[in-house]
Amino acid sequence: MYGFPGATAVSALRVYDWPAADGRRGGSPHLHTASSEGYVVTSGTGTLETLSRDGYAEHPLGPGTVLWFSPGTVHRLVTDGDLELLVVMQNAGLPEAGDAVLTFPPEVLADPAAYARAAALAVPPEIEAGPQTQAALADAARHRRDLALEGYLRLREGGPDALAELHRAAAALVRDRAAAWDALWRERALAQAERTGAQLRDLAEGRPGLMSDAHVGHATPNPPGRHGMCGHLQTWAF
């Protein structure tokens, strides 16, 4: 099996409808350091707020909207009502291995230990599994969202210099993971591209190549209801 086409990963997302400090409802602002991300909106309406080289922007979302953004783009999903979408992530395996940095205030970003504590969805050990656990996870996800929003609102006011500083802080936070990510990229994304190159060479010489290994793959659904950065996630094991 060669993995999902293009070495991507797909998840279904229902955006959090929790009200935030600025009166909008949505998820945690963050960026990815090495992977592009795409959205296909399936239902509901909302807005994608972004901070990039083009400054601050708002992108309307509705059924049928397809958009994507490159690494380093700070993004925040906001829902107007029941916003659901499919998320397509480049470099399957890298986001799961930590290719995401939340926009916490600078003092948190500058301290790896403090960042790790703020980013974790910790449930108090005295809480038993069941509805109480889900409620505790929701509270933790909301607290994480609020802290990321605090840093994001400050970031929006800071202009290009503030975004450049965030990029430097994000690079420092993930530096120690880069070697492991490189191995994952070679095993998955690069390997798929190299197989395509080999297939094109076979076809140029009239050989069937990969077609001789034709097959169908199926993804295994992970348990639903995971609390992601932007909303409730349904993911699959590819």
Count of strand segments:
10
SSE ordering: EEEEEEEHHHHEEE
Distance between the termini: 10 Å
Low-pLDDT runs = none
Mean pLDDT: 94
What's the helical proportion of residues? Answer: 25-40%
Global morphology? globular
CATH topology: Jelly Rolls
Query: Strand share of the residues?
Result: 25-35%
Count of domain modules: 1
Structural class: alpha+beta
Annotated CATH homologous superfamily: Jelly Rolls
**CATH architecture call:** Sandwich
How would you characterize the overall build of this protein?
The protein is globular and about 60 Å long. The chain has helices at residues 106-109, 112-119, 131-174, 178-204, and strands at 9-15, 30-31, 37-52, 55-61, 66-69, 74-89, 101-102, 220-221, 226-227, 231-237. It contains 4 helices and 10 strands, in the order βββββββααααβββ. With 238 residues, the protein is of the alpha+beta class. A hairpin with a 3-residue loop joins β9 (226-227) and β10 (231-237). Strands 1, 3, 4, 5, 6, 8, 9 and 10 form an 8-stranded antiparallel β-sheet that branches. Strands 2-7 form a two-stranded antiparallel sheet. The longest helix is centred in the middle third of the chain and has 44 residues, at 131-174. The chain has one domain (5-237): Jelly Rolls (Sandwich). The model has no long low-confidence stretch (mean pLDDT 94).
